[in-house]
Specification:
CATH topology of the largest domain: Glutaredoxin
Keywords: Cell projection, Cilium, Cytoplasm, Nucleus, Phosphoprotein, Sensory transduction, Vision
Mean pLDDT: 76
Oligomer: single chain
CATH architecture of the largest domain: 3-Layer(aba) Sandwich
CATH superfamily of the largest domain: Glutaredoxin
Order of helices and strands: HHHHEHEHEEEH
Shape: elongated
Subcellular location: Cell projection, Cilium, Photoreceptor outer segment; Cytoplasm, Cytosol; Nucleus; Photoreceptor inner segment
Family: Belongs to the phosducin family.
Radius of gyration: 27 Å
Protein name: Phosducin
Strand order of the largest sheet: 1-3-2-4-5
Largest sheet: 5 strands, mixed
Number of domains: 2
Number of helices: 7
InterPro entries: Phosducin, Phosducin-like_reg, Phosducin_N_dom_sf, Phosducin_thioredoxin-like_dom, Thioredoxin-like_sf
Length: 228
């Protein structure tokens, strides 16, 4: 499509090392960076000469096939990144957030977007399974950046009597301010040693995780695999 071709040509020109170009080509690039330049009706010949010159100079700037292939790979990856960004709605987190008190606990649930899943781990130091679950959630937070992963000590919630040691670790899942799931003593669902993949599978069984994030794209080095 014409729009895609023009976008590619613009990307190709912007990728040039401007400082290494002759002055004549620098001037052409400067002119091409202002595509909405207007001409008067009496200046039709000047406009036509400018357009012809721009076309010829543009061809000279993009005709190197070896360099063109490298630039094409960068262009493809930029398009993939732009597409992924457009399809990724809502804020990104990527880490396990420590909540300090009950007020922060409520804010994390009630002041979040209605489309954001909030997963809160209620824990205490020294309780079996709590450390392993925190480690697992730290890994999952990096994998599922659109999910808000939090942890808070039961004694800091302001409702410690509701979270006694025999129900820890507890995992609460919210969306739109509503409690979706409440898993008490969740470590009992796993083997004595468990990891992020086990917690991920468990949450996926209940449909509580979105599709996994696309892997980060490279910086365009030519030795990386092409993006199809």
């Amino acid at each position: 499509p014409k729009g895609v071709i023009n976008d590619w040509r613009k990307f190709k020109l912007e990728s040039k090392d401007i400082d290494s170009l002759p002055l004549s080509k620098k001037e052409i690039l400067r002119q091409m960076s202002s595509p909405h330049r207007s001409f008067s009706k009496d200046d039709k010949d000047t406009r036509e000469r400018f357009c012809r010159k721009m076309s010829m100079q543009e061809y000279e700037l993009i005709q190197d096939e070896q360099e063109d292939e490298s630039c094409l790979q960068k262009y493809r990856k930029r398009c993939m990144q732009d597409m992924h960004q457009r399809l990724s709605f809502g804020p990104k987190y990527g880490y396990l957030c420590e909540l300090q008190n009950g007020e922060q606990f409520l804010e994390a649930i009630e002041k979040e977007r209605k489309t954001t899943t909030v997963i809160v781990h209620i824990y205490e130091d020294g309780i079996k399974g709590c450390d392993a679950l925190n480690n697992s959630l730290t890994c999952l937070a990096a994998e599922y950046a659109t999910v808000k992963f939090c942890k808070i000590k039961a004694s800091n919630t302001g409702a410690g009597d509701r979270f006694s040691n025999d129900v820890l670790p507890t995992l609460l899942v919210y969306k739109g301010g509503e409690l979706l799931s409440n898993f008490i003593s969740i470590s009992e669902q796993f083997n004595e040693e468990f990891f992020a993949v086990d917690v991920e599978s468990f949450l996926n069984e209940y449909g509580l995780l979105p599709e996994r994030e696309l892997p980060a794209l490279g910086n365009g080095n030519t030795d990386e695999q092409d993006v199809e």
